Amino acid sequence: MAKKVSALALVLLTLVAGPAAAQDARAALQAAAKNMGADNLKTIQITGKGWIAGVGQSYSPADDWPRFEVTTYTRTIDYDAKSSREELTRRQGNYPARGQVIQGEQQLVNLNTGSYGWTMQGANANPMAPAAAEIRQLEIWLTPHGFLKAALAPNANPTALRTHITGTSTTART
After folding, report:
1. Of 37, 50, 57, 82, most Cβ neighbours within 10 A?
2. Distances (CA, A) of 144 to 31, 57, 64, 90
């Protein structure tokens, strides 16, 4: 009987608190967007250099992943157009070359808009597989500003969830 009462109380609490939690989540997201400048942000550009690796592509458990040095990297995201352009220059890293070997430097350009993506090789545009284009689109919304823009989009329904993790009370916003 106690389980039925607890379940009923949970359902009633969810029905009563649902709209308030959604409003609370939207208000928190709007405040974060305002503080980060995401509400007026149209585009963002990320630049850097470093290295990339073929995750899980080591030749033995004792070897590191094959590494490429990235000498230039630029990613430009247009949030309104839901598009991005990624340009990078890479060269062979310090690890012994096995498999793909780069002679000199290699320029890579990846473009995507909506559910379409292209990899440029010189003036030739090669279409990406739909799954790869979908991942590129997801990368736009996984940026801090993109997350806020997606959560506050007209058809989005952000909600706040309250849960208990290892004995402590935590509020998560989704």
Report:
1. 82
2. 14, 29, 30, 26
